[in-house]
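re: that chain from earlier
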Amino acid sequence: MVATAGCGDDSAGGDGAGKDGSRPYRIGMIAPLTGNYEQLGRDHKKAVELAVEEINTAGGVLGRPIELQVRDDRSEPNQSALAFNDIKGGVDVVIGSAFSNSALATIPLAEDARIPYVSLAPADEQVKPIRPHTFVVPATSAQYADRLLQYFQAMNLKKIAVAFDGRSSYATAGLIGMRDKAGYYGLTLVASEEFQTGISDFTAIFNRVKNSGAQVLTVWATGPPAVTATKQYATSKLALPLVMTGAQASRLFLDPAGSAAEGLTIASSIGVVGSYLPEGEQKEVIASLSRSFRALYKYAPPQFAQDGYSAVQLIAAAAKQAKSIDRAKVRDALENIRLVTPNGYYAYSKTDHNGLTSDFISVNKVDGGALIPTDWAKSQFPAAMR
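^ sequence. v structure.
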């Protein structure tokens, strides 16, 4: 199913039919399959391959099988750019790296090549400002920030603190989102603490947050720093809630954090807590992915898998809507897509290349090692249903 063939005699820029008029629909995928974000990338790849297999089994896209070409960016931005240059001549569309820094390094190349680039990274800079060929699948950092601010307002937590990884585009965007919208919700950002990815001791940060008068602390991070902060928070006697974001909404965080994560607040896509949703199309779409993914891999699809699966569904839907695999026509169709996926309901437009709203983010508590929606989140679910 996963192929690395070149372009052959067909032009990936157009319909490029071979003698039988039905050459494969070629999707390129760049993923961190080694390096710091290996586990995240492997979950993405599993879900993308599952979605491709399901579509091909059902007859493909416009009668064409999907051919998937995968490259490893090694969790490094420069390798993502090299990977893109390696496949750009032989694919019709590219699913981009989940590592925000890699995506931001690659997007200018995709724009120059005029290839639809469907990103699995959540950094806001990808779509602010709008870039013609770039579309984002996960909820962005700003959307997670907005949802958490809504929750804090509802919980009467008026003074908030943020600790963020200054080397992460995702984390920096999260800080900016909270800083810029706190006042809108009647909240005050009383502390913003920057740390670096290799941090090993949060003691000083916790002490400054404690002295700031904050009522809640949100940590914006990816990878090991979130686990380190959680374990040290458990013994810090910092008497205020610790909140994590969508980057921690999987076993990749919960397993290494262990018992220290109990009681934490973690935001996630609604797909992570799909079994708690009201009956309807959204719940069934999530359940369908869960059944298929569990059957293959013996564990529930994490948030990252839902992103990858949704990306393929969006790309396939755009080609069907365009009645073509031509890059320009698929790009135009993406701007008009309306689709329910495991991540939620997408409505891309000329002014919105993210397509989701914060309604599709749930705020959860860790209970028994699992994410359980808060009562507030459950009260918000009806607004997200289509």
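The first strand starts at residue 25 and ends at 31.
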